[in-house]
What we know:
alpha+beta, two-stranded antiparallel ribbon, globular, 434 Repressor (Amino-terminal Domain), single chain
Amino acid sequence: MRAVRSALGLSQRNLAALVGVHFTTIANLEAAHSRVKPATLEAIRRVYRDAGVVFMIGTDGAIRIEIGQQVIEELAKNPNVSL
């Protein structure tokens, strides 16, 4: 999640404002320090989806990411970001 957020040019505070949570919620999620509420996860998914990133949760519970061309191009510009 952090790499995608960074590739989109969003800070934790920016994403938190778009999602409607405190920025520490985003920080804790990225550091795997807390579980995400379903409503928060859905809000994050909407923000990312609108930017061309789709998170899919498989029947096995694994999260898969489909990345649009715009995000791939942004990632290619920034060698410090990796997925």
